Amino acid sequence: MANEILKDEILNDEQLDGVAGGTFAESAQDCFFFQHIGFDMQKDTINYTELERAWARAGIAFVPNNDANEYYQNGKQIPRAKALEIAMKKAGKKIDLRPYYV
User: Considering only CA atoms, which of 56, 85, 88 is closest in space to residue 72?
Assistant: First the structure.
């Protein structure tokens, strides 16, 4: 019973976007995300240059940050959730984003 996930405990995309992240953990999730939508990424490692290139291929400027990574489209900062959606659209894949929030 302790491991049961209650419907009320599941966050929607808007709530997930407000979850603090950033630094290594958030970047690791971004790497896994790109692997799962078909981008060629090194496994079991985080290479920030490679991650920046992956985001760029999706049309997003990525800026690693100690508090929370930053994502920009057309020079305007956008929420991470929107950046993930844009990358999925670019890759032509739709996946559940909940595993990519830390």
Answer: 56
**Could you read off the pLDDT of 56-99 as tens digits, one per residue?**
999 999 998 888 899 999 999 999 999 999 999 999 999 999 98
Beta strands in 31-81 (DSSP E): 61-63, 70-73, 76-78
Q: Which residue type occupies 68? A: A
Rounded CA Rg of the chain: 14
pLDDT level of residue 102 (50, 70, 90 thresholds):
low
State how far the Cα of 65 lies from the Cα of 86, in Å rounded to an integer: 20
* Ramachandran angles phi, psi of 18, nearest 5°: -85, -5
Read off the tokens for 34. Answer: 């790109």
Q: Are 53 and 47 in contact (CB under 8 A)?
A: no
